[in-house]
């Protein structure tokens, strides 16, 4: 295994004091294809899923006798080279791109995780987030003894929910992995799409709610599973179908077989359609790009305005901007120029350079927008910092009016199912109404799509969609004792009230223990502890 130093540069938006937007769920990929270069197929598959996680990447391969894992911090292109890929031989492989939602962003938490030993080893990659992590930790101790935390992934310092699942899957060497999986999977609560493997066999499983997407594809000499259909198409696989909620798929030399480990209760994440998934992905029969264009059309119907030009914020706001233009009859144009070569790592400017207003990510196209009344379409507002900077930039470039339109409703609640939003206190819509948000970002008008308009654009039954980040209605019940959070295995648990009735008085008790810098113990950053710090 390759080990990095675990250091990541600050997020790009920190250059401009910008918004760290909704961070994507992870991407998973698996392939069973004897005679093919499975490591390179996985590498290219992960490239297609890079948008789902940019913190770390890894690939595991199996050749019938052993499993090799290579993983490190960084983008897919930074982690792997020809030498690394050529060392990963076998007939099956799994891969992962990570954005951390349980456990910090460290090398120890990079995936695939590895468990077991001797004649049978398990490698696992996970997209999603479990909400009974503490319960699973206790189950590991119950089944394997107190020393379990000093062995395997847990002993190497892995603090993710994925490590616990890996440990449970590898806990009984006398049982087949298939049998163990059918016993362990029903014990998990939350959102999960797993691809995992032993030395010979590829497995894929999706939680009963189907919160995150997972698709099955066919190669001429094998099978593929991936978080999004676009990754299947990237490597030349045909799309067969989605892995069903509550389904375990097993692929080996005998072909493909399916098990139902739980009854399907579909609650697909609506934010996959709004922002997370690639526009060319197909989820439950709906092309994501088409859904986004329809959201833009609906925005124009719900929030019309007299204007000269519609522009989209690259990249995710562009399809909705096209739809707004089509419905309103206002011409669509390019108002921003995006630097395609800015990644997560870069030389940070000094404070003096920051004050010069360095704009690495976006620049306004002045000759297009000067003197124009603009409709600016974006997918979401989190803190409002990004939109505030964009409005200021457009004003400086000479825009006469700026009317902001958002293709999702106001985000007021955190996600515990695999997206890392800001905390409730940082979500601008938690404490402000639409008119107050408009004034805060400096726009001439502001309109959010309605919940009904957004869900209608997906062409999915509203009852089969998760809209918790907009409504606070969590389809998978959260732990009553509040033992939930990104760093729940790294810090002490704190008892909090959770759920839709937990309003803004959800604060940290003054008696809570704090570290040397005054940070409450048991609290991490991002969505995981958002209910702890309203």
From TrEMBL:
Pfam families registered for this protein in UniProt: GATase_6, Pribosyltran
Enzyme class: transferase
Annotated residues for binding of Mg(2+): 316, 378-379
Chain spans, region Disordered: 1-20
Keyword NAD set for record: no
This protein's UniProt keywords: 4Fe-4S, Glutamine amidotransferase, Glycosyltransferase, Iron, Iron-sulfur, Magnesium, Metal-binding, Purine biosynthesis, Transferase
Pathway connected to this protein: Purine metabolism; IMP biosynthesis via de novo pathway; N(1)-(5-phospho-D-ribosyl)glycinamide from 5-phospho-alpha-D-ribose 1-diphosphate: step 1/2
Manner of cofactor binding, per the entry note: Binds 1 Mg(2+) ion per subunit.
Catalysed reactions listed for this entry: 5-phospho-beta-D-ribosylamine + L-glutamate + diphosphate = 5-phospho-alpha-D-ribose 1-diphosphate + L-glutamine + H2O
InterPro entries named among the record's database cross-references: GATase_2_dom, Ntn_hydrolases_N, PRTase-like, PRTase_dom, PurF, PurF_N
Keyword Transferase: yes
Positions of [4Fe-4S] cluster binding: 269, 415, 466, 469
NCBIfam families: purF (TIGR01134)
HAMAP family, per database record: PurF (MF_01931)
Name under which the protein is recorded: Amidophosphoribosyltransferase
Gene: purF
């Amino acid at each position: 295994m390759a080990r990095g130093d675990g250091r990541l540069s600050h997020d790009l938006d920190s250059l401009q004091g910008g918004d760290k937007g909704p961070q994507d769920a992870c991407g998973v990929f698996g392939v069973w294809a004897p005679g093919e270069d499975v490591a390179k197929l996985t590498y290219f598959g992960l490239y297609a899923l890079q948008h789902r996680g940019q913190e770390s990447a890894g690939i595991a391969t199996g050749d019938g006798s052993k499993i090799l894992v290579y993983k490190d911090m960084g983008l897919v292109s930074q982690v792997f080279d020809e030498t690394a890929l050529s060392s990963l031989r076998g007939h099956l492989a799994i891969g992962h791109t990570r954005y951390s939602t349980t456990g910090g962003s460290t090398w120890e938490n990079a995936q695939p995780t590895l468990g077991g030993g001797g004649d049978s080893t398990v490698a696992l990659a996970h997209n999603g987030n479990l909400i009974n992590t503490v319960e699973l930790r206790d189950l590991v101790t119950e089944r394997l003894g107190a020393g379990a935390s000093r062995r395997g992934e847990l002993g190497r310092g892995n603090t993710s929910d994925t490590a616990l699942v890996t440990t449970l899957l590898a806990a009984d060497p006398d049982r087949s992995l298939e049998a163990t999986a059918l016993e362990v999977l029903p014990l998990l609560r939350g959102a999960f799409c797993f691809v995992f493997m032993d030395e010979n066999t590829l497995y894929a499983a999706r939680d009963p709610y189907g919160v995150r997407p997972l698709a099955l594809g066919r190669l001429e000499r094998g099978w593929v599973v991936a978080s999004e259909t676009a990754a299947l198409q990237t490597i030349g696989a045909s799309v067969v179908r989605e892995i069903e909620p509550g389904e375990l798929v097993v692929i080996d030399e005998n072909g493909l077989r399916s098990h139902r480990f739980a009854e399907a209760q579909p609650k697909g994440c609506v934010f996959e359609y709004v922002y997370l998934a690639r526009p060319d992905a197909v989820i439950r029969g709906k092309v994501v790009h088409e859904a986004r264009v329809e959201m833009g059309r609906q925005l124009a119907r719900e929030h019309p305005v007299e204007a000269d030009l519609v522009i989209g914020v690259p990249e995710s706001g562009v399809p909705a901007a096209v739809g707004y233009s089509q419905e309103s009859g206002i011409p669509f144009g390019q108002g921003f120029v995006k630097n395609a070569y800015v990644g997560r790592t870069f030389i940070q400017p000094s404070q003096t350079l920051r004050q010069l207003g360095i704009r690495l990510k976006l620049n306004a196209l002045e000759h297009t927008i000067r003197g124009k009344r603009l409709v600016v379409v974006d997918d979401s507002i989190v803190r409002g910092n990004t939109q505030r900077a964009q409005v200021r930039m457009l004003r400086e470039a000479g825009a006469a009016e700026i009317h902001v339109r958002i293709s999702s409703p106001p985000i007021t609640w955190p996600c515990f199912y695999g997206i890392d939003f800001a905390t409730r206190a940082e979500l601008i819509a938690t404490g402000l109404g639409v008119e107050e948000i408009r004034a805060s970002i400096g726009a001439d008008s502001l309109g959010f799509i309605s919940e009904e308009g957004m869900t209608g654009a997906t062409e999915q039954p509203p009852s089969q969609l998760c809209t918790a980040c907009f409504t606070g209605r969590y389809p998978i019940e959260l732990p009553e004792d509040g033992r939930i959070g990104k760093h729940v295995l790294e810090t002490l648990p704190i008892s909090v009230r959770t759920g839709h009735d937990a309003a803004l008085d959800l604060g940290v008790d003054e008696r809570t223990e704090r570290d040397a810098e005054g940070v409450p113990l048991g609290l991490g950053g991002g969505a995981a502890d958002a209910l702890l710090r309203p």
